């Protein structure tokens, strides 16, 4: 593997950088799986509320169907040099049952409120259990910055 000249960050710096990206970025890759149909991956808009990732997708989408059958998911921010991977269990909220604070924050961030659409949507909430973050080969060791839902120091 070719090195990039990146300087190894400490865990606290990786956590800070990861949280900044979770607040500031728009898209996340969502990986789900169905026992009969296999893996499914799609980019979705997301909101970080300080504890969980909130996404929205059509109620009949493969992502929504997969999460109902198998709630374990992996999320990835879209940068192959500044990698952030989150793992957790997803929970679906029909668009008319989502907590108001999450729906309002989502609508404010994107200028779009799925609750006003004719077709049904679901909000998907993922509370991370594991977070990995690294920039290049120097940071592969120690890339876990959250374990069992607790940020590491």
From TrEMBL:
Keywords: Oxidoreductase. Pfam families: PNPOx_N (PF01243). SUPFAM superfamilies: FMN-binding split barrel. One of its GO terms (cellular component) is cytosol. Residues 26-134 form the Pyridoxamine 5'-phosphate oxidase N-terminal domain. The keyword Transmembrane does not apply. One of its GO terms (molecular function) is oxidoreductase activity, acting on the CH-CH group of donors. InterPro entries: F420H2_bilvrd_red/Heme_oxyg, Pyridox_Oxase_N, Split_barrel_FMN-bd. Signal peptide: none annotated. PANTHER family: HEME OXYGENASE HI_0854-RELATED (PTHR35176). This is General stress protein 26. It comes from Actinomadura luteofluorescens.
């Amino acid at each position: 593997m070719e090195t990039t000249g990146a300087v190894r960050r400490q865990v606290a710096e990786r956590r800070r950088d990861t949280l900044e990206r979770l607040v500031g970025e728009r898209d996340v890759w969502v990986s789900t799986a169905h026992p009969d149909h296999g893996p499914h991956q799609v980019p979705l808009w997301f909101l970080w509320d300080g504890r969980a990732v909130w996404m929205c997708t059509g109620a009949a989408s493969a992502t929504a169907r997969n999460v109902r059958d198998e709630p374990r998911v992996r999320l990835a921010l879209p940068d192959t040099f500044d990698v952030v991977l989150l793992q957790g269990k997803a929970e679906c909220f029909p668009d008319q049952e989502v907590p108001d604070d999450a729906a309002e924050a989502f609508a404010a961030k994107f200028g779009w409120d799925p609750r006003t659409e004719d077709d049904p949507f679901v909000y998907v909430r993922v509370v991370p259990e594991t977070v990995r973050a690294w920039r290049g080969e120097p940071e592969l060791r120690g890339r876990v910055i959250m374990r069992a839902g607790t940020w590491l120091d």
